[in-house]
Write a structure and sequence with these properties.
64% helix, two-stranded antiparallel sheet, globular, single chain, mainly alpha
Length: 482
């Protein structure tokens, strides 16, 4: 294991994060919100920490290729260290003064784009800490690791293995260009372009410029953080809800599809993709079923727009809310939380199992039924008219099993820690799927849970963000022995 390379790489990326803190520092100065010193303290700590890792190893001569094991370790350490260092602005903030457990939870939630929050007084916070929360999600959305890949070649550090460890789904084998740096740059161009369009749309729909920019960060990141306690419901605007729905939908698509569609100037790229077609179908079917159900039993209590908004918000794992659903029937809330398990498309900023894996599981079930009737039949599984390699098939099945086991195991632990069943199962689902809002005692925020539970759910958010394998694999003795 090349530990000097690992320190150098992580140090460089932490320095990038430190530089980004100039944004909330500038906001604090512009608004004169009294929070400038807290961000300067945070900047100093983070910059020094990154420098201690990077500069001692800058001139070392070592093999610059990142191997598989090093890639996994860099990604995990980077996300854990980011979450740790990202907690300092919350602890130093003059209006928050959070404990480390609360600040760490908020930081992890931001970086993993989960959107679960400890804070209950968002409307009273300073503009600088509000924009900082949104920035965490925006950077975490595409992965600041991928951002750093664009500058790694300048340091003589190859990034292919790091890219594979960070990215999930078919994006691993479907690069935009042969060079990883160019791939990262193209992804970020799409990401930045969508963010600018989203901010402009929010502004034209009625948000002020600050809220428009802040919400564009968390919308494109599919994060769900807001600058107001009531989330999108605060604005009470059909136009703003519509903009939010459109960009949640777009951000949950594979970003490589966006790139190829823009490059070819054709929308046909989307409809040729089987994952996109299933994604559309699931949204339509579940929206129709819930609208049909509510029209019979809750016709005057739940609006059509409310159902459509929440279906898109939950299946994309965004976590925005357009109305309070505290008094919604358990059946509807349960279906919405189930949708978060399906998740967004692979290669997007969303969480959950991912639609492409759900599609594969459905095809695997179909093949199993055919094999029962015709045991000797050869039934290949095809995605977008391409046969799926047997190794990939096994990995997807193992991922699905690990995902479900992780959910059940973590939920049972929370039950043993004293949480009621609704809170335990919904909070694990919300954190593992990087969704945010739960049910029971965490339906509004997570401030009521105890410290041990906050740490466990922080681990759960990281587990979901790194798509199970990346985090679990370094916890096995095999990773360190061979």
């Amino acid at each position: 294991m090349n530990y000097a390379l690992i320190q150098k790489t992580i140090g460089m990326m932490i320095l990038v994060f430190a530089v980004i803190l100039i944004i909330p520092i500038s906001i604090s100065i512009i608004y004169n919100d009294g929070n400038t010193s807290s961000f300067i303290y945070s900047f100093t700590i983070i910059f020094l920490f990154g420098s201690l890792l990077f500069f001692p190893n800058q001139s070392n001569s070592f093999d610059s290729s990142i191997k598989i094991k090093e890639g996994f370790l860099i990604v995990v350490l980077f996300w854990v260290l980011l979450s740790f260092l990202g907690s300092f602005p919350f602890m130093f903030d003059i209006n928050l003064s959070m404990s480390f457990a609360d600040a760490f939870f908020e930081s992890v939630s931001g970086w993993t784009t989960t959107g679960a929050t400890i804070i209950s007084n968002l409307d009273d916070l300073s503009p600088s800490i509000l924009i900082y929360r949104q920035l965490l999600q925006w950077l975490g959305g595409m992965g600041i690791v991928v951002l750093a890949l664009a500058v790694l070649p300048m340091l003589g550090v190859g990034g292919m293995q790091l890219y594979k460890a960070e990215s999930g789904g078919p994006i691993k084998d479907n690069k935009i260009s042969p060079r990883i740096a160019e791939t990262a740059q193209n992804l970020w161009k799409v990401y930045l372009g969508l963010t600018l369009l989203c901010a402009a749309a929010y502004y034209l729909a009625g948000m002020n410029i600050f809220d428009a920019i802040a919400h564009s960060f968390s919308t494109i990141a599919i994060g769900g953080f807001s600058t107001h306690n009531q989330s999108i419901a605060y604005f009470n605007s059909f136009e703003i809800e519509l903009v939010c729905m459109i960009f949640m939908f777009l951000s949950a698509l594979n970003f490589i599809l966006h790139f190829h569609s823009l490059k070819s100037r054709s929308l046909k790229i989307y409809f040729k993709d089987v994952e996109f077609r299933l994604y559309i179908l699931l949204i339509v079917v579940f929206s129709f079923l819930l609208l049909l159900y509510t029209s019979f039993f809750y016709a005057n209590e739940i609006s059509v727009m409310g159902i459509l908004f929440q279906v898109i918000s939950f299946i994309t794992t965004s976590g925005f809310v357009s109305m309070s659903y505290d008094d919604w029937p358990v059946s509807i809330i349960s279906i919405l939380i189930f949708l978060s398990f399906l998740g967004a498309c692979a290669g997007s900023t969303g969480g959950g199992i991912k639609i492409i894996r759900i599609l594969f599981i459905l095809k695997e079930l179909k093949r199993g039924l055919i094999k029962i009737i015709h045991p000797s039949a050869e039934v290949p599984i095809k995605i977008n008219d391409q046969a799926v390699n047997e190794n990939i098939s096994n990995n997807i099945l193992l991922f699905f099993i690990f995902y479900i086991i992780s959910y059940i195991f973590l939920s049972l632990i929370l039950l043993l820690m004293g949480l009621d069943a609704t809170t335990a199962f919904s909070s694990v689902a919300a954190c593992l799927n990087n969704l945010g809002p739960g049910a029971g005692s965490v339906i509004d925020n997570y401030s009521s849970i105890n410290t041990a539970t906050k740490y466990l759910l922080s681990f759960t958010m990281l587990l979901g963000r790194l798509e199970i394998y990346t985090l679990l694999i370094i916890m096995t003795p095999y990773f360190w022995k061979y």
